[in-house]
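Project outcomes to date are best conveyed with an example. Our students and postdoctoral researchers have been running inverse folding experiments weekly, and each run begins with a structure described purely in tokens. The record below, which covers 130 residues, was selected by the lab manager from last quarter's runs and is presented without edits.
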């Protein structure tokens, strides 16, 4: 389990744990429950808000090891997700499988055999002869 300081990393949130703990956000779970309004009321800059959003996404998708590197780009989560997995791999050192996971989006209809790019994945039906 990460400490609050580890979660905040070495970027724009480094050294800001006191702001969070004095307002009751004293662990990673409570920090991830913050809304945009909560962030604004604490006086966080847009850059800090973007960093928290990015870190929460990465943590939720098992990709937190890339948090400092991706935060250092200065790009928002939305900007990074509009890019390509090959850029994430070559420019930011993300493993190819991890870059694919980062880019995945659920189909709005919830059909797991389609990705957001409309590419059909696998849909096997097993029929037993017994």
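After processing, the design step wrote out the following sequence:
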């Amino acid at each position: 389990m990460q400490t609050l300081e580890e979660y905040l990393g070495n970027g724009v949130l480094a050294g800001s744990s006191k702001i969070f703990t004095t307002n009751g956000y004293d662990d990673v779970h409570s920090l991830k429950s913050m809304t945009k309004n909560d962030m604004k009321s604490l006086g966080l800059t847009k850059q800090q808000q973007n960093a928290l959003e990015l870190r929460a996404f990465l943590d939720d998708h098992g990709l937190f090891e890339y948090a400092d590197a991706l935060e250092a780009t200065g790009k928002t989560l939305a900007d990074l997700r509009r890019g390509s997995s090959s850029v994430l791999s070559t420019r930011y050192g993300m493993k190819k499988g991890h870059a694919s996971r980062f880019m995945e989006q659920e189909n709005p209809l919830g059909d797991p055999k389609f990705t957001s790019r409309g590419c059909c994945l696998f849909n096997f039906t097993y029929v037993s002869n017994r």
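The first helix runs from residue 4 to 8. Residues 4-103 form one domain. The training component of this project remains on track.
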